């Protein structure tokens, strides 16, 4: 076959030819072109401002979850409350990764539908900044999220941390957060956003080597624990993990397991964790829909989920409080296992289809 014939056949097959029968036969709910989620420094300055402005936009929109979260004062705080209220049920569990993937997808959808944002959530690969961590592009005062907290000698719980006070620069320096640190029903407070940046921790944990160790995990059960991190494990590699350590490198609000989505960097860090999971999923067809590990938290002592369900997470497992954007259906794990799986049935889970259509670039 001549090369141009091949190209023609190919464009027809993927539905690029206008009006091609192939295109018409397709279910428009499927994921033909996965939207790119880019690393922060890959965005143009204008794209960076568009994202920052979209986040500021939802910070200035009233809560639409007041009946559920009376202490939420904005659309942005709805997400802090959603995360805070679910914290005991979504960390150190088999569904940690899919819950946070769905949470980010919902946040992204709200930016797009309620604030006319046309991009995607960016990710922050901290390993690109370890040589000069305090000057990472994400900390830029105009084209970033501002820098460290005021110098208070760092956080005594985070080795090598600096700052610790309210952030003093950038678009979020005047942000007020009204969600209390502890207690799901704790009344409103009025406070700033804090950071206690810890460059040595980033140098030790946020590295390409750590990422490749995570990607070498033989199954989901290992991958999920190594990526999240868990203090109950003696192996230091597992203990902190790229997820937990990435919260600790920023410190302040990001160091608080309950209300860390108060720092906009939460979403960029979690997109990076999601990227690493997606990279692992892409390594083999059996990885793509792999899921497991217990529903109950591994650390019952520090989290209060009384009588958690027994058994392991499956594609049918419900993601508490998260609905698929644009539907009234409760999301299940299977909806979000494949980032490019919109409209595609999930193996082993009749009736469950993917809802996502993005990829990391
Ligand atoms: Cu979380």
TrEMBL record:
<keyword id="KW-0732">Signal</keyword>
<protein>
    <submittedName>
        <fullName>Di-copper centre-containing protein</fullName>
    </submittedName>
</protein>
<keyword id="KW-0186">Copper</keyword>
<dbReference type="InterPro" id="IPR050316">
    <property type="entry name" value="Tyrosinase/Hemocyanin"/>
</dbReference>
<feature type="domain" description="Tyrosinase copper-binding">
    <location>
        <begin position="263"/>
        <end position="274"/>
    </location>
</feature>
<dbReference type="InterPro" id="IPR002227">
    <property type="entry name" value="Tyrosinase_Cu-bd"/>
</dbReference>
<dbReference type="GO" id="GO:0046872">
    <property type="term" value="F:metal ion binding"/>
</dbReference>
<dbReference type="GO" id="GO:0016491">
    <property type="term" value="F:oxidoreductase activity"/>
</dbReference>
<dbReference type="Pfam" id="PF00264">
    <property type="entry name" value="Tyrosinase"/>
</dbReference>
<feature type="signal peptide">
    <location>
        <begin position="1"/>
        <end position="19"/>
    </location>
</feature>
<feature type="domain" description="Tyrosinase copper-binding">
    <location>
        <begin position="91"/>
        <end position="108"/>
    </location>
</feature>
<dbReference type="InterPro" id="IPR008922">
    <property type="entry name" value="Di-copper_centre_dom_sf"/>
</dbReference>
<keyword id="KW-0479">Metal-binding</keyword>
């Amino acid at each position: 076959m001549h090369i141009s014939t091949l190209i023609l056949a190919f464009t027809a097959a993927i539905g690029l030819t206008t009006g091609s029968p192939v295109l018409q036969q397709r279910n428009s709910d499927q994921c033909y072109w996965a939207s790119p989620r880019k690393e922060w420094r890959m965005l143009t300055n204008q794209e960076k401002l568009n994202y920052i402005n979209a986040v500021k936009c939802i910070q200035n929109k009233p809560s639409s979850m007041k009946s559920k979260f009376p202490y939420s004062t904005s659309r942005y705080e709805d997400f802090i409350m959603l995360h805070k209220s679910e914290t005991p049920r979504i960390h150190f569990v088999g569904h940690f990764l899919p819950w946070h993937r769905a949470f980010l997808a919902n946040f992204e959808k709200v930016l797009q539908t309620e604030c006319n944002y046309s991009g995607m959530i960016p990710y922050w690969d901290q390993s690109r900044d370890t040589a000069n961590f305090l000057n990472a592009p994400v900390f830029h005062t105009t084209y970033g999220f501002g820098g460290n907290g005021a110098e208070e000698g760092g956080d005594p719980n985070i080795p090598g941390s600096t700052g610790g006070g309210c952030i003093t620069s950038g678009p979020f320096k005047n942000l007020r957060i009204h969600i209390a640190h502890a207690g799901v029903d704790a009344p409103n407070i009025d406070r700033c956003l804090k950071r206690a940046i810890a460059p040595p921790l980033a140098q030790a944990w946020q590295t390409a080597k750590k990422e490749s160790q995570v990607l070498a995990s033989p199954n989901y059960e290992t991958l999920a624990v190594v990526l999240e991190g868990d203090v109950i494990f003696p192996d230091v590699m597992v203990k902190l993990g790229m997820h937990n350590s990435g919260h600790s490198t920023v410190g302040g609000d990001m160091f608080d397991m309950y209300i860390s989505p108060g720092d906009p960097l939460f979403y960029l860090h979690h997109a990076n964790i999601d990227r690493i999971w997606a990279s692992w999923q892409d390594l083999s067809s059996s990885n793509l829909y792999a899921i497991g590990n217990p529903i109950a938290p591994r650390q019952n002592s520090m989290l209060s989920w009384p009588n958690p369900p027994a058994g392991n997470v499956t594609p049918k497992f419900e993601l508490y409080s998260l609905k698929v954007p644009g539907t009234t259906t409760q999301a299940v794990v299977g909806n979000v296992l494949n980032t490019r799986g919109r409209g595609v049935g999930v193996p082993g889970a009749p009736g469950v289809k993917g809802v996502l259509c993005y990829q990391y670039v």
